[in-house]
Amino acid sequence: MEYQYLIDLNDEKNWLFPIVNREPNGNVWEEARTIHYPVGKESLMRVTDSVFHPQPSAHCHYHRAAYEIFFWSMAPLDYYAAGKVAEVPPGCITLHRPYEPHGFGFHALTRKVGFFHRMDMPLEDGICSALLREKQPDARRRPDFPKAGAVMTDIVRAEDPVDYRRVPWQEMDGVRSIDRPLAVERFDGVTMKMLIARWETGGVKEVWAAEMEKGFTAASNPWPLRTEMLYVTKGEVRFTVYDDTFIAYKECIVKLPKYGEYRIEALSDAVVYDVGGQTEWFLLFRDRGSICASDGARLADAEAMRELKARHGCEIRTIGKN
Ligand SMILES: [Fe+2]
User: Fold this and answer.
1) How many Å lie between the centroid of ligand 1 and the Cα of residue 167?
2) For residue range 229-261, what is the model confidence (pLDDT) as tens digits?
3) Does the predicted TM-score (pTM) go above 0.85?
4) Ligand 1 centroid to 197 CA: how many Å?
5) Ligand 1 center–CA 286 separation, angstroms
6) Which of 105, 173, 250, 301 has CA 20 to 30 A from 80's CA?
């Protein structure tokens, strides 16, 4: 059986149902492709990749249930939220929670890799939309085509921003950068940085960046109990899962399947984001810090540490440095 561990975002083979969204005047404003369809009751691991074109509308909208986490690249963009607008540099991340209206202004081609949860747009919807485009390419432009409901799940149009106050991006709550982490934990060969906390996502996930030094290694438990999703934004990392080996590089998504023991080795300095976000890294590190300060013997007790990691869903058994 073939399992797709590695999803290169730049390989068109991985663009599921690419679409082009146009303004009413016909100008292209978004080239979008679904990269991964959501799974489970929280609709986790929905991934999209879009390139936006300069456009007059900020397309302000909000969601009633969905959370969005966007990785931006290629060019700076204007981000509108909470009565403020800021220029967000490439490399930043934005977080959009339910009932937080948000809009974006683009001045050059700008790329967004999006990770969603609680936005229920399953594979069946993708297939049905693709079928509609094939059979009736103009259907969505017809005045009698339904405007709400199943057409776009949980995307509610908001008024366009007027008189928003311009501020530095650091003053926007939803903008995150690896240079301004919410928490940092250092180990030999790797620095973990929290960009999005679990209390900001309805408790569903948290997003950490792992800054790996060349030679850093990590090995999982024999049968990890959850599929994990990682996003490599810098460097090269070799993964071994079961008896399969592959190298992930910049702009690759990596899926590590439930039950598959894996090993990671950074072949260069690398940055890898935990975008599946299931491990409770923050609680794990806080608990470990407390134990470290109060009870060094327990920290050295392998069984106690195994139990601590299991409690917080951490499947990393060992880390090291080559
Ligand atoms: Fe949104």
Assistant:
1) 21
2) 999 999 999 999 999 999 999 999 999 999 999
3) yes
4) 19
5) 32
6) 250
**CA 53/CA 286 separation, integer angstroms:** 43
- Helix (H) or strand (E) segment spanning residue 266: strand 262-266
pLDDT at 305: 94
pLDDT in tens, 260-308: 999 999 999 999 999 999 999 999 999 999 999 998 888 889 999 999 9
For residue 81, report the distance from its CA to the centre of ligand 1, in Å.
11
What whole-number distance in Å separates Cα of residue 302 and Cα of residue 310? 12
Instruction: Find the 266 Cα to ligand 1 centroid distance in Å.
Output: 34
Distance 28 CA to ligand 1 centre (A): 19
Q: How far, in Å, is the centroid of ligand 1 from the Cα of 64? A: 10
CA of 204 to the centre of ligand 1 (A): 18
For 90, the token pair is: 């490439």
CA distance 85 to 106: 12
Mean pLDDT, all residues of the chain:
94
CA of 274 to the centre of ligand 1 (A): 21
Q: How far is CA 93 from CA 44, 156, 178, 248, in A?
A: 18, 22, 9, 21
The model's pLDDT over 34-87, given as tens digits with 9 standing for 90+, comes to 999 999 999 999 999 999 999 888 989 999 999 999 999 999 999 999 999 999
List residues, by chain if needed, whose CB lies under 5 Å from ion ligand 1.
68
CA of 110 to the centre of ligand 1 (A): 16
Question: How many Å apart are CA 114 and CA 229, to the nearest integer?
Answer: 13
Contacts of 297 (CB under 8 A, 6+ apart): none
Tell me, in angstroms, the distance from the centre of ligand 1 to residue 224's CA.
Answer: 32
- The full set of domains in the chain, from first to last, is 7-176 (2.60.120.10), 183-321 (2.60.120.10)
Query: Which tens digits make up the pLDDT trace of 130-174?
Result: 899 899 988 888 888 887 655 557 888 899 899 999 999 999 999
C-alpha span between 76 and 306 (Å, rounded): 44
Instruction: Please answer whether residues 274 and 208 qualify as being in contact, where contact means their C-beta atoms are separated by less than 8 angstroms.
Output: yes
